[in-house]
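Record type: monomer structure entry
Structure origin: computed from sequence
Chain ID: A
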Amino acid sequence: MNPDDVTHILAGAVKAVTDAKVPPDLAPVAFEKAIDMLAGPRPVAASTTATLGVPTSVAAPTTPTGSAIDRLATRLHLSHEVVEAVFTENGDELAISVPPDRLAKAKSAGAREIALLVAAARQSSSDDPTTTDQIRRAVEDYNRFDGPNFASSLSPMKGTFLVAGPSRSRTFKLTKPGWTAAASLVGRLGAPDKSAS
């Protein structure tokens, strides 16, 4: 692609977002999507994975197939073994099974990590957003729930998720940066525990 094409695509994306009167909080995601649409399909390169299986980029798979762990591993560009160290299959669903001491100790940070894990597990096989209740149940299971501060602990994740709905029935949909953050977190949590050696 030459520089003139890039300039044309960027100008078109700015115009599309401006003309659509996209709310400011959604403008970055809308701009990214507009660029994707204007640039057209791109070939997906082979997975580039750094050490410990942490991806340097995350792209959506063409079709989710295989077991739930395989689908998530494909989506995150991680090995089956790394994902299996963090999740357990329960039928066609995934449950978080990482030991609690591997998660952030602070309730708010732990709640954010769990929210990322729950959303990645659910959204690897479905386009449906993750609900506040689904996140809350997992956060409670890991004793990271701080009732009065739960909603505010998820607020810093607005770039990670597209957030919709009122506070009690909010939904969370992972963005591209959210998928990258989920891959990094699962890669870190699923890596062998060096302190055990």
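Annotation 1: The longest strand covers residues 87-90.
Annotation 2: The mean pLDDT is 81.
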